[in-house]
Amino acid sequence: MSENHIKGPIEDLYKKSQDESSPLTLDNLILSQAKQSCTPQKKPQKFKRKSWLFGLSTAAVMVMSFSIIINLQNESKQITTQPEYMDIQQEEMNLEVMPESIPVDNFAQRPVNTAPAINKKINTQKKLKKETAKPDSSGLAGLLLTTKQKPEAAEKIVNFIEESTINMENKSLLSEQPVLLQTPSKAARKSIEQVEHNEDIIELDSITIADSVSLEAEDIYMDREKKIDKQIEKLEELMTQHKYEQAKILLKQLKSLYADYNFSKYEDIL
Amino acid sequence: MKQPSDEELMLAFAKDDVQAFEQLYSRYKDALYRYFLRHVSNEAICQELFQDLWLKIINSKDNYTNVAKFKTWLYTLAHNRLVDWYRRNSLEINAFEATTDDIVDGSINWRPEDELQTKRLGKGLKQAIAKLPFNQREVFLLHQEALLTLPQIAEMLQEGIEKIKSRYRYAINKLRLNLENLK
Question: What whole-number distance in Å separates Cα of residue B172 and Cα of residue A192?
Fold first, then answer.
């Protein structure tokens, strides 16, 4: 018996009778398993976000947040301006109206007016307040708001105030009456009552002046709005008549005149 | 052109070379199939064991190290799988250990040119192999199918070489006796 491979009739006969082999289906199964083990397993596909969509959404969020912050800042400024105005008003009232600050001896020397006149002025002021509904839309606060909202109207308003104050100063000099540009506060009203009690009435023309200033500002603003509306109507007419070139020229002019107004709708159409 | 060794092919397969595996599979598939078939004498069980073994090889490709010969490693896995199957089915492995009394000396009157006789004897031989005790059949098949030398078989089964030699001799003698009875 050799150590390597034994040869004999049995071994030869066995070799001759080796006719079995693995079935093809089994071969294919095993080979496919081998292939599967070699191919790297695909990772589950994640939802691919489009990069531009992500960028756009972040930009939109940024713009929105900035606009909100700016609006909040504007609102806070508006709120802060009101007390300042009220303080100034208070000071002015104390200086010019408060009877306590005036000595009794000189009280008779102060300018006086009739009681019904003052009552009339206060009533008109109350009326104006009711009409404007918003507390800050009347008087100087309202005026400040209108100037903020419509910067172009601001110059006109300022000029008007200057003119009116000059006129009133002249008037006060003639009539020797105090001039106020603010609406009266509670303290002012108290002082007025005291004056009435003492039958010494101080005329407060300033009340009507402030209101009239605000009304004038509103009128200017309304005129402007009307003008814009008319121009837009013209523009729309031109567009309906298919006169696009003329419409474009008009739109340009409008844009230059009213920069704060949004003409994007018409720009898009043209 | 020099053919790559089994070990080289297996290492290539470990690096995801499917063709290497196909080559390796084609080298051993038939011999291994017959190895199982002779042992269990049932095609369905044979196919099950055969598939299990190759799947085990596929799954353990990453852990394969070129320490032992691939053929020895392959047949060690096959042997272990077979022993496991025997144990699960409560079959005796060491039921029959050959003694000197079992040795039958003789020769068969076989003419290889006679195809009909070869077929008939071949069939008889397969039946005789199936009747062999597990240890003798294992040594005979490892020698004839796996083409392992007796020392290699001894090393693989962790048995003494003399014990393996005697097992083989007993197996041959029994097969010869069975073939003599066929005449």
Answer: 139
pLDDT per position as a tens digit, A114-133: 445 555 555 655 555 555 54
Contact A217, A183 (CB under 8 A): no
Q: Is B36 on the interface with A (CB under 8 A)?
A: no
B134 touches chain A (CB under 8 A): no
Is some CB atom of chain B closer than 8 A to the CB atom of A31? yes
The 10s digit of each residue's pLDDT in A50-76 is 678 888 899 999 999 999 999 998 888
- Length in residues, chain A: 270
Contacts of B141 (CB under 8 A, 6+ apart): B34, B35, B38, B39, B129
Token pair 């020769």 in the structure block, residue: B107
Q: Give the residue carrying structure tokens 């397993």.
A: A41
Query: What is the architecture of the domain spanning B6-88?
Result: Orthogonal Bundle (1.10)
Q: What angle do CA B79, B81, B86 make, to 5 degrees?
A: 95
Evaluate whether residue A207 is within a structural domain.
yes
DSSP character string of A38-59: HSPPPPPPP-PPPHHHHHHHHH
Nearest CA in chain B to A40: B16
Per DSSP, the residues of B84-151 read HHHHHTT--SSS----GGG---------TT-HHHHHHHHHHHHHHHHHS-HHHHHHHHHHHTS---HH
Q: What are phi and psi of A249, to 5 degrees?
A: -60, -45
- CATH 1.10.10.10 is right for the domain spanning B100-182: yes
Overall pTM > 0.90: no
